[in-house]
Amino acid sequence: MADNAEILSGLAEIVEEVAGIDAGDVAAEKSFVDDLDIDSLSMVEIAVQAEDKFGVKIPDEQLAELKTVGDAVDYIAKNQ
Amino acid sequence: MSARLSLAPVVPGARIIGMGSYQPEKIVTNDDLAERVETNDQWIRDRVGIVERRVAADDELLVAMAAEAGRLAVKDAGIAPTDVDTVIVATCTMPYPIPNAAAQTADRIGIVAPGAFDLNAACAGFSYAMGTAADLIRAGSARTALVIGAEKLTDWLDWDDRSTCIIFADGAGAAVLSAAPDAESVGVGPVAWGSAGDLHAMIEVRPHNNALAQEGQAVFRWATTKIAPVALRAIELAGLTPADIDVLVPHQANLRIVEAVAKRLRAKGAREDMVVADDIVHSGNTSSASIPLALDHMRAAGRIRSGDVALLIGFGAGLSYAGQVVVCP
């Protein structure tokens, strides 16, 4: 089980890999859409990789609710 | 007393001996669509990868497009239409289900009395039809088969639905398959195919407006995760490894799906210099026609050479999927 800091850094690596955004810019308070400019298809790719990495399920309905990086970290922490 | 039935002698396999394609003249740009629905050029380029697409005239028939692609493929093969004994048209957009497209398409080309049938596996149709034709040839049921993917998707669009009208387009592509004289010249590998009927509602024509609707995000997730494993199975069935693939021709659904599939195959050993089809940019998504259109265009542009090993992989409504390795003519 990864702790929140580990989840954040793991998620940041995925975001960098999928969307080309520097992992250092992926902070908990950042909004995926408004701050990081990530579109819905990239969000799906991020979700798929996060599922593999953290052993969670992130269905599309749930994905729409994850507005910020922090929302995603919390969801993964609760469901891993 | 039971009769003993004789069967045709089995041949080593099939190979592609000719290709052809046809697209309607009319080009519709992203800006043209932005005049009708709330969208813009950059959004379409970013999400789907399409710059322009071809749209058939109102009176331009699917069978006419199929026949033109087929005629060019027969010509490219250097054979006469009368040499063809089997015609399969992969399509899901005939205006009416009866009569089928294949028989009248054959007649338009001058192919006399062939076995002729349509095959509906939507965007996977061309790979399904190639697999079927190659196995008919291998079993001795056919000697020379014309396989056509032809679609007039714009007959089945709601032009006010911006999630679909920006994506789909019209066209036809074809390949001629014939019996390979020996094992070394076999050019169509075994088909890896399947379906997921539980997800049928993900891409469907809705009865209230007879128009195609799809759950874009769900389709994207399915295609980017489930298709690369099918492609790898097709490579394995052909006795090859991902590094042997010179050209990747996925169904041209969305450039980002194409890129995601290529990335997954490269992670499994496909080469960085593997050529990846991007025909969607100027052709749009033409369902069963997209793979042969891409192949024919890449051949014409010199991006594919004779003898190149190409991996074809179709996927779409059904849901259905199919792929095989072929040797380019």
Indicate the topology.
The complex is a heterodimer of chains A (80) and B (329).
Chain A: H1 4-19, H2 40-54, H3 60-65, H4 69-79
Helix pairs in contact in A: 1-2, 1-4
Chain B: E1 14-22, E2 27-29, H1 30-34, H2 41-47, E3 52-54, H3 62-77, E4 86-90, H4 101-109, E5 115-119, H5 125-138, E6 144-152, E7 170-179, E8 192-195, E9 203-206, E10 211-214, H6 216-237, E11 247-250, H7 255-267, E12 275-276, H8 280-283, H9 290-300, E13 309-316, E14 320-327
Parallel strand pairs in B: 4-5, 4-6, 11-12, 11-13
Antiparallel strand pairs in B: 1-7, 2-3, 6-7, 8-14, 9-10, 13-14
Helix pairs in contact in B: 3-4, 6-7
Q: What's the short story on this structure?
A:
The complex is a heterodimer of chains A (80) and B (329). By secondary structure, chain A is an all-alpha fold. Helices cover 60% and strands 0% of the residues of chain A.
Task: Characterise the protein shown here.
- The complex is a heterodimer of chains A (80) and B (329).
- Chain A is mainly α.
- Chain A has helices at 4-19, 40-54, 60-65, 69-79.
- Chain A is built from four helices and no strands.
- Chain A has a single domain, classed as Orthogonal Bundle (Non-ribosomal Peptide Synthetase Peptidyl Carrier Protein, Chain A).
- In chain A, 60% of the residues lie in helices and 0% in strands.
- Chain A starts with a helix and ends with a helix.
- Chain B is of the alpha/beta class and 329 residues long.
- Chain B is built from nine helices and 14 strands.
- Chain B has helices at residues 30-34, 41-47, 62-77, 101-109, 125-138, 216-237, 255-267, 280-283, 290-300, and strands spanning 14-22, 27-29, 52-54, 86-90, 115-119, 144-152, 170-179, 192-195, 203-206, 211-214, 247-250, 275-276, 309-316, 320-327.
- In chain B, strands 1-7-6-4-5 form a five-stranded mixed β-sheet, sandwiched between helices. Chain B has a five-stranded mixed β-sheet with strand order 8-14-13-11-12, with helices on both faces.
- Chain B is globular, with a radius of gyration of 19 Å.
- The A-B interface holds A 39-41, 44-45, 47-48, 60 and B 46-47, 217-218, 220-221, 224-225, 256, 260.
